[in-house]
Amino acid sequence: MGICKVHFCILCHKDQKKYPFDLKAELLIAPHHGSASSSSQYFIDAVSPEQVIFSAAYRSRFHHPSPVVVKRYQRNEVRHFSTSESGALFYRLRSKKSGAETKNDFLSPQAYRQTHPRFWQTTDL
Fold first, then answer.
1. pLDDT value for 1
2. Nearest Cα residue to 79 out of 51, 107, 54
């Protein structure tokens, strides 16, 4: 059975250049909602995620995630999702042996707002 590492970052200092343990993970919950002072290049290199989730509120006054931070992840070819756009994200994690075709299929989230649109957003009207 495959193993998927998910990293939940509680507090990561933006100037920290070394970490006392291995941070490698396939899926990262971005530190501090993806604020401008989070996710230094050193941190991204240490985690080396395939995907990052920015847990941020819709129309928040703080405008998370920061465009600078999003671009930093994009430059590292990290697939990114923001709950401010998608709503809740649901992951069904399974091993490659259970039928997942590719690594992206292994880590493909379902966005709540896509699977549960408001009645005025449906095409069935």
1. 40
2. 51
**Domain-embedded: residue 11:** no
- Side-chain-facing half-sphere of 76: CA atoms under 13 Å: 21
Chain centroid to CA 1: 23
Q: Which residue has the higher pLDDT, 79 or 5?
A: 79
Q: For residue range 61-97, what is the model confidence (pLDDT) as tens digits?
A: 877 898 999 999 999 999 999 988 888 888 776 655 5
Bridge partners (DSSP) listed for residue 14:
none
Domain of residue 103, residue span: 24-116
Q: 78 and 51 in contact (C-beta within 8 Å)?
A: yes
Query: Is the residue at 8 inside a domain?
Result: no
Place of tokens 């005025």: 120
